[in-house]
Amino acid sequence: MGNKVNLKLGVYGEGGVGKTSLVNVFLGKEVPKNYSPTINSKVSRKDYILEKTGVTFKLNIWDVGGNRAINPNINNAFFSDVDIALVVFDLTKPELTIKSYEKNFLNRINRYSEEPLILIVGNKLDKLLLNKDFKEAVQNYLGEKKIFLITSATSELNVDNCFELLIYTFLKKSEILLPDLVPENSSVEFIDLIGKTEEELRGQLVNLSSIDLKLRDLKPKIKLEEIPSQEEDKERKYHEFIQQELQKISLQKTTLSDNFIESISETEKELNQLKKYNIKSTIDLVDKLRKSLEISKKNTELQLETLNKLTREENELLIISSKFRKDKFDIIPKPEPKPKPELQTLGVKPKPKPELQALEVKPKPKPELQALEAKPKPELQALEVKPKPKPELQALEAK
């Protein structure tokens, strides 16, 4: 049996840069039209079997959520034991999505993983404008000579090359460093398997000075969007707002729950302390207990009131969100039924109906129809029944 190699591939970047879309394109899945933030992480798998070298590579792809409102603190486990990584930024918002990439992603990957291979990827090539602001942002945060790869998940352009270049480079490096695990020529067999060359993969890399030429080469392959970007942006922002509000409410409810448990614990402590006091009469004990319980009751009532208010707000937001989605989906099919009334009116016109009914329902002319239909029937019956001639049938036919 050959070797089985598990590779952990992490996909990182700020919220909304298109990480999930890139993963979906690579796995042959549908790209979502509307932005929906990834919560925590999502793990997918893809296997490569190299028959000549007898190695099976199991690629575990970790799509790590980068939306700060949904994922305020990204778990360090998502950065540990990473073999290869894509760090994605938005080509249309370079300053917002590149300036913190080193602090938020690169440093953490390198801290929790041992010498991982990292590729910087600029997504949304279909909307890229090579203006002064873009070049300044890349110059300031990546540098003029820093190499990266540009893609468009929407146009499914250059996406596979990102992942395949990383895998190929890992195999080539591992043939030298881990020959027992990755046999010689594994990288060559991988290249043959995907039907590409090393030059083709490495040729997709660009830097600030060469991006103009690469964009000119890829531009004819870009798919034009049918939906205006302003509408998409409004929908995305609206969806983000609802998700952020729901996340805030969820955190507040969790805090209230923690406070409630803490309040109960405090009451228990006070009761235990009362047992230790040298109280002369039962009345004193009851008074102290009453005061303690009254305080606890007031706190609990306030917390319950706040909790109910938050629950109402949460339900309202969920209703708005579901209504928005329902209206959106209702709007889409409405243009389709428009031709249906026309077809129905054509079918339901009172004038043609009698003619159709007369042709279909006429019971009286049945003999005539049978007579007309009977003419071809004898020939068919005669052909079918030739081996067994029946005098009665022949007599009927002769009439």
The radius of gyration computed from the alpha-carbon positions, rounded to a whole number of angstroms, is 36 Å
Number of alpha- plus pi-helical segments: 15
CATH architecture of the largest domain: 3-Layer(aba) Sandwich
Number of strands: 7
CATH class category label of the largest domain: Alpha Beta
Low-confidence sequence ranges = 329-338, 340-350, 353-362, 366-385, 391-399
The quaternary state of the protein chains shown equals single chain
Q: Give the strand order, joined by hyphens, for the main sheet.
A: 2-3-1-4-5-6-7
- β-strand percent reads 5-15%
Name the overall outline: elongated
- Give the CATH topology of the largest domain: Rossmann fold
Largest beta sheet, briefly? Answer: 7 strands, mixed
Order of helices and strands: EHEEEHHEHEHHHEHHHHHHHH
| Mean pLDDT level | 76
Estimated helix fraction: 55-70%
Q: Assign the CATH superfamily of the largest domain.
A: P-loop containing nucleotide triphosphate hydrolases
Helix- and strand-based class?
alpha/beta
Number of domains: 3
Report on this structure.
The protein is an alpha/beta fold. It folds into 3 domains: 3-226, P-loop containing nucleotide triphosphate hydrolases (Rossmann fold); 231-325; 339-398, no CATH class. Helices cover 55% and strands 13% of the residues. The chain has 15 helices and 7 strands. A 7-stranded mixed sheet has the order 2-3-1-4-5-6-7, with helices on both faces. A hairpin with a 4-residue loop joins strand 2 (41-50) and strand 3 (55-64). Helix 5 (159-177) packs antiparallel against helix 6 (186-194). The protein is elongated. Mean pLDDT is 76; it is low at 329-338, 340-350, 353-362, 366-385 and 391-399.
